[in-house]
Design a protein that fits this description.
about 110 residues, Methane Monooxygenase Hydroxylase, Chain G, domain 1, 3 helices
C-alpha cells in the first residue's frame, strides 16, 4: 500500500525545514540554506489543491493556519539575514560588469 502524506504532515515538515533555514541563514551557511529551500519547494509542489476545506475539522484548519504563519515568519527571518548578503553580491557583480563595459569600450586600464 502506498503511503500518501496528509497536508498537515506536509505543512509540519515544511515548518520544521523552514526553522532549519532560519538557523542556516543566521550562520551564513548558504549551501545548507539552498538545500533546505529545495526540500521545501519539493514538499510545496506535492501539496494537492485544498478543495475539501469545508470537511476539515476546525482543529486541523487552525493547525494548518498556525503552521503557515510560522513558515511565513521563518521566511521573513531568513530574508532579514540573506538580503544584506544579496545586496553585497549585486554590488559586486554590478561593479564587475561596469568594469568590463569600461574595459570593452576603452581598453584595460594600466
Amino acid at each position: 500500500m502506498l503511503f500518501m502524506p496528509t497536508q498537515i504532515s506536509l505543512y509540519k515538515e515544511m515548518s520544521a525545514l523552514s526553522a532549519r533555514m532560519v538557523e542556516a541563514a543566521r550562520a551564513h551557511d548558504w549551501d545548507t540554506l539552498i538545500t533546505l529551500e529545495r526540500s521545501i519547494a519539493a514538499l510545496r509542489n506535492s501539496l494537492l489543491p485544498d478543495d475539501d476545506i469545508e470537511n476539515e475539522a476546525a482543529g486541523e484548519l487552525k493547525l494548518k493556519s498556525q503552521l503557515i504563519q510560522r513558515i511565513l515568519a521563518d521566511d521573513a527571518e531568513v530574508r532579514r539575514h540573506t538580503e544584506p548578503w544579496m545586496e553585497q553580491v549585486r554590488k559586486f557583480l554590478g561593479s564587475d560588469a561596469r568594469r568590463r563595459d569600461v574595459e570593452h569600450a576603452y581598453g584595460p586600464s594600466s
